[in-house]
Amino acid sequence: MRQFPLEMHTLAPGRVVEWRLRSTAAARDADRGDPSGRRASFNQDKHFTVAEESRAADDPVASWIAVTFEVEGPLDETALSRALLAFVGRHEVLRCEFRRLAGELACAPLAADELALETAQVGVFETSELLRGFLVERFKRSIDTLSWPLFTMGAVLREDSATVYLAFDHIVCDGMSMPIVVHEVETEYEALCRGESSGLPATAPSYLDFAEEQRRRYLSIGADDERLGYWKSFIERNGEFFPRFPLDLGVRPDRMYPIVNEASLLLDATEAEVFEKSCLAVGGKPFMGVLASVAVCLREAGGPGVYRGFMPVSERGRDAWTNSVGWFVNTMPIEFDASPGRDFTQVMTQVRAGFGEMIRHIDVPFVRAWELLAPEEFAARSWPYPVNFFSYIDMRKCRGSERHDEWRPTSHVWSARANGACSWFQRDADGLHMNSIYVDTAAARGTMGDFQASLRQTVRDIALTGGFRRPIALTPPRLPIRPRVRA
Question: Which residues pair with 79 in a beta bridge?
């Protein structure tokens, strides 16, 4: 299972059916639920606020997260409808309506037994190109942070197979939620087709409970709270709250740009196995090896010797929220020394130490730290400039991964605009993959193209030789520096 642009998906054509969520209650009461109860998480509140302010400024933002997977044989539409409804009923956050209440963002979950799915026969798409175009536009039109429901569900039917798709607003899920979607819908569907129980629980631990506990612990803290010490020390060394992406992307301050969304294979399955062994041999893990490679490539292209960036970390834990859908992500700063003169072993030692220090201070939510330590930037609708960002997920460790060869799941992210660059790395049975979204400028295309080529060569060198395969000295960039071009 890997993440790549939906436009790259080789979807076979077919007949599209959608299942649209509705409430069976007589009317949705604006005051339903406990007004003193459910509140959104810090991530959700900031996301919703940005959507509100953008809509008010007639400058709407748009984004979505989607997943697809395959069902072999003729699709039983009734069974899939029941499986989808059971999935929605299992995860409370998917049943939520969000609204402002006394300045805070309240969550009003609809009861699972008050929901139903309506079937919509969309039409037949004769080519893959027409089908992809429909899905891209469908997700753009239907996913709206300020409108319920916050996701869409459907399938592409053929005589001997079907592709199921779900697309979500980020406010109700994260990247690690996508394998959960695949496993639960496939498992429930197959059990229904057999006339058996799936064994899945009727309800999963709720993200709303997680959000409630998070707010209880951190809503009242101030900027002088000792738990912000790690953030403050990072800011002092970095000079500002956000770690800048160190290469030229040709962007102007206070401007958003259309995006480039691209993906590529860095290592095939065999190379990825050898790469992992090289990382383990020096006391690290594969994600540390990728991060070390990123740091060295950025430095060789003109970046600093000390790597500073943001890294999303899952807050699901090992037990409580493992199989829950929601936005269980804390974004944390990480730094380590990748200066010239350090070999692979030495840089990996620095990465391991930097990661360990970060994990020891993971408690304060990113949005809360941002609000307290950079209030002027917190008031803006986007990060202030291109930010250095690194994400890594080993999809082989996700529940249901033993059947990914059969289900063939894929994940996709999209955003209408950006002002920087973000890269996500995934390891699966086929190898190591990279998906990047960055601003569509001439400078960014050149910079990111060179960076990706350099990174691919670096991780392959590690797989081949166990190291960076460079002289341990200050070396010039291996690729020519492109002239700075402003958009």
Answer: none
Assign 301 to helix, strand or coil. Answer: coil
Domain boundary among 211, 242, 272: 211
Could you give the number of structural domains in the chain?
A: 2
Closest CA to 257 of 382, 354, 105: 382
Q: What are phi and psi of 374, to 5 degrees?
A: -140, 60
CATH of the domain at 326: 3.30.559.30
Confidence (pLDDT) at 349: 99
Query: Which of 191, 211, 231 is the C-terminal boundary of a domain?
Result: 211
Task: Answer yes or no: do 7 and 119 share one domain.
Answer: yes
Neighbours of 199 (CB within 10 A): 8
What DSSP element (H or E) covers 211? helix 207-218
The separation between the first and the last C-alpha atoms of the chain, rounded to the nearest angstrom, is: 35
Measured in degrees and rounded to the nearest 5, phi and psi for residue 84 equal: -65, -40
pLDDT of residue 37: 62
Judge contact between 450 and 411, C-beta under 8 A. no
Please give the residue range of the domain that contains residue 296. Answer: 223-465
Query: CA dist 394 to 40, 98, 286, Å?
Result: 28, 32, 9
Q: Do 169 and 299 fall within a single domain?
A: no
When pLDDT is cut at 50, 70 and 90, the band that residue 476 belongs to is very low
- DSSP letter at 397? G
What's the pTM value of the predicted model, to 2 decimals? 0.93
